[in-house]
Each structure stands twice: as structure tokens, then as C-alpha cells.
Amino acid sequence: MKKLLAFTAIATAAVGAYAQDFPGSKPITIVVPFSAGGPTDRVARDLAEALQKPLGATIVVDNTAGAGSSIGTAKVARAAPDGHTLLLNHIGMSTMPALYRKLPFNVENDFEYLGMVNDVPMTLIGKPTLPANNYKELTAWISQNKGKVNLGNAGLGAASHLCGLLFQSAVKVEMTPVPYKGTAPAIADLLGGQIDLLCDQTTNTTTQIEAKKVKAYAVTTTKRLTTPALKDLPTLAESGLKDFEVTIWHGLYAPKGTPAAVVKKVNDALKVALKDPNFIKKQEGLGAVVMADKRIEPAEHKKFVAAEIAKWGPIIKAAGVYAD
């Protein structure tokens, strides 16, 4: 018994010493489970820049894309729990359990939750040649073209896919889903008129809306946005879709077993980063809202994700979409 207690004391002291030295001279990697250049990648790179000073470490971004973010997420779940490999993921953390029959990790049990980063509203946009000029005209056009409307998305489980599912359910009109391997090709085909509609994050659509390259119909928040390019867009809720709300939040995670002291260090640094004026300016310019409520705390972050899993599970199952 004395040997066991002695071993436990030594192990605890070793973990404490490591946590005190963290991050040391070793760089920290933030894994983004999506391709470079996409909305989540942009958030990650802005965050990495803001985190470097409060953490006192070099931070690099690693894009490990594929399978609706499950490949990159699994990579972090398997990584050494030392705080040097982190994950930045979006709402996919709450939808993967319903979308995939088998996952090599458990979202709620295989990660340490470090805090949430932002909320990103969505926008409903259309091809530039669409005859509808406002949401009322759009719904009329959709009704007149039942079975002919092509609704693009960036792939199974992507933010645009989820928003599209909810939109179809709300308007009670089936549309033809057109999946792409990422947001960029989906927007390219929208601009070219190959698809009719897309519901995607403001981080990816604001520039196109501001340049008037697409038709913009509504935002998916309960209140209108203050971003100059989006402030005149009505919400889908005020347009007639009662209680319609979709925001694509982002959160930061570490492998399960990461020492509590390291989790606290990263969370403390995250709180500093989220107050960085440069980071806030970049996020607001894209229509994103930097997290400032209790969800920045690890326990509240985890509680929120559990509620999101309960919300999206029935919607995804009702739509009958899943991946092996």
C-alpha cells in the first residue's frame, strides 16, 4: 500500500511538473478536420495567431480533412494527451453521432473540452440569375418549381448540409441535394448557375454578398446581424419560419486524459485570445460572433454540445441520411 501511495505521489508530481512547464519549446498543433481555405480553417488560423502570445508557443494548423470531419477528429482522439495536439471543430461534433453508424471515438467521452470560440450565422443565398429578389418571391418560386430546385451543400455533415436539411423541413418542400467536396466548389457552381440555392456560413458568403455576386435572402439567426454587408437581410424567423435558428459554432478540444492543469492553461489563454481586438475585428468582419458567454468554460462547453447532440439527432434521423 505504501508503494502504491508513493507511486501515485510521484506520478502526480510528474504531471504537475509537466503542466507547469507546458507548452515548453514544442509547438502546438491545431488540427482542422476540413480543407484549407474553408470557413473553419479561417477561424482556426485567426485563433492560432491570437493564442500564440498568451500560450507562449508557436502554433501551427494541420488540415486533416475527410469523412465529414471524422478523420481529423479521430486523429486528435488518438494523439498524446499532452496539450500539444488540439482540435478545432464546428457543429459537426454534435452531428457525427447521428450521421455515422460507426465512429472510432466517442464525442462526449474521448475529449477534454477547452471552451467555445464563436457562433457563425448562416445565410440563404441563390444563384445570380434566380428570378426571386426577396424571400417572399423565393418561396413562391420554390413552390412553382417543386422537384426541380437544386440545393447545394459542402458534403455530408457540413454546415451547409445541416442548414439545408432544416430549411427543407421548415418549408415542407423537397429539393434535390447536390453535395460537393467542400464549400469552394459549391459556391463556384452557385455563381455559375449549376445549382440554385445554398445555405452557408457568413464566414464564406459575406464577401460574395457584399460584391453582389449572389442573391441574398435571409440570415438564420433570431435577430438581424450588424455586419454592414448583412444588416439589411431579414431573418428566416421574421420571414415566416417560426423559431428557425442555425448557428455554426466552433469549439476547441484536447485528447481525453490531458492534465487538468494543461486544460486550464489552454482555457485561460483562450479567454485572452477571444478578447484580442484583432481577432474580434477579423471575426466580426466575416459575420461571426466571438464567444463571450459561459460556454467559454470547459464544463459549459461540454453541456452545450450534449444539448446539440440531442437537438440534431432526430432531425438527421428523420431525413434518413447517414454514412457508414
Account of the 3D structure:
This protein is α/β, with parallel strands linked by helices and 324 residues long. It has two domains: 2-120 and 249-319, D-Maltodextrin-Binding Protein, domain 2, CATH 3.40.190; 122-219, Periplasmic binding protein-like II (D-Maltodextrin-Binding Protein, domain 2, 3-Layer(aba) Sandwich), CATH 3.40.190.10. The protein has eleven helices and eleven strands. It has a six-stranded mixed beta sheet. A five-stranded mixed beta sheet has the order 7-6-8-5-9. β6 (150-153), α6 (159-171) and β7 form a beta-alpha-beta unit. α2 runs antiparallel to α10 and α4 crosses α11 (298-319). The radius of gyration is 21 Å and the shape is globular. The termini are far apart. The model is unreliable at 4-15 (pLDDT under 50).
